[in-house]
Amino acid sequence: MVRPYAVKGRKRKKNKTERYDKEEEEEENAGFVEEGEKEGTQKKLKSGVTESDEEKAEAAAEELAGIPVNLSEQQQGNDNNSPGVIFVLEKASLEVAKVGKSYQLLNSEDHANFLRKNNRNPAEYRPDISHQAILNILDSPLNKAGKLRALYVRTEKGVLIEIKPHVRIPRTFKRFAGIMLQLLQKLSISAVGKREKLLRVIKNPVTQYLPVNSRKIGFSHSSEKLVDMHDYVAPLDKDATLVFVVGAMAHGKIECDYIEDFISISGYPLSAAYCITRITNALERKHKIL
């Protein structure tokens, strides 16, 4: 029997707008708060995260001190008008999903069965690659000397993240996963007692944050242009801003239309972390940073 009043309407299309942190919503999106402000953080997120999940993520984030390594040099190196070095990590495997009753950052070791059940390849979920690459960049003498101007991470899903050069990223992967979980849900993380945002999700594309006259260099083992990194950077103008684009995935290669020069720096495939080490070592020698 057919219902007389059953009229099917058109399904409403979901508004899939890009989610990113907005400067004017700083207090609302802040990741860390003082004890007197805990009421705001106890609200459940729209994505369905429970208070216990949120508390775990915040507890993991306590290691972010947000103190520059060398404040005077760091400020000089990150001046928007001064030349420096910018790193962009492309195709990073940073994806959050609800596993069981909680939201987690997916990785091949802990979520292999979950990924297989959802017809996904566990080998592609390697957030540890991004963790190692970020640590290598931030720990480098190049950064401590104030030469690192910016660090951007773009995920496989197209989420663009900005990481301040003076952030102290957690050393262990478990704590790092907690930070990324909180960041991708709240869109920003601020230091305790400070309004400065240490990590935040920003609007695409990344090119709008790159200097107009910067030189954008991509790295791929498949490139026919094999170079010695020290010889490559030696003749480059010291006053020019260099943008290095490195893939943070387990397999494949980066394909970005904004890259001006694709090079290979070894006859063997290199991990993202070791590739970054070769880049920073070459630049440190160029600038005589010991």
From TrEMBL:
Positions with biased composition (Acidic residues): 23-37
EC class name: transferase
MF GO annotations: rRNA (pseudouridine) methyltransferase activity; rRNA binding
Keyword S-adenosyl-L-methionine: yes
Coiled coil start-end: none
Keyword tags: Methyltransferase, Nucleus, Ribosome biogenesis, RNA-binding, rRNA processing, rRNA-binding, S-adenosyl-L-methionine, Transferase
Main location: nucleus
Name of a matching Pfam family: EMG1
Keyword Nucleus appears in the UniProt entry: yes
InterPro entries membership: Alpha/beta_knot_MTases, Rbsml_bgen_MeTrfase_EMG1/NEP1, tRNA_m1G_MTases_N
GO biological process: rRNA base methylation
Region of interest (Disordered), ranges: 1-62
A GO term from the CC aspect: small-subunit processome
Entry's localization field: Nucleus, Nucleolus
Record EC number: 2.1.1.257
Family: Belongs to the class IV-like SAM-binding methyltransferase superfamily. RNA methyltransferase NEP1 family.
Protein name: Putative ribosomal RNA small subunit methyltransferase NEP1
Organism: Helianthus annuus (Common sunflower)
Source species taxonomy: Eukaryota, Viridiplantae, Streptophyta, Embryophyta, Tracheophyta
Gene it is expressed from: NEP1
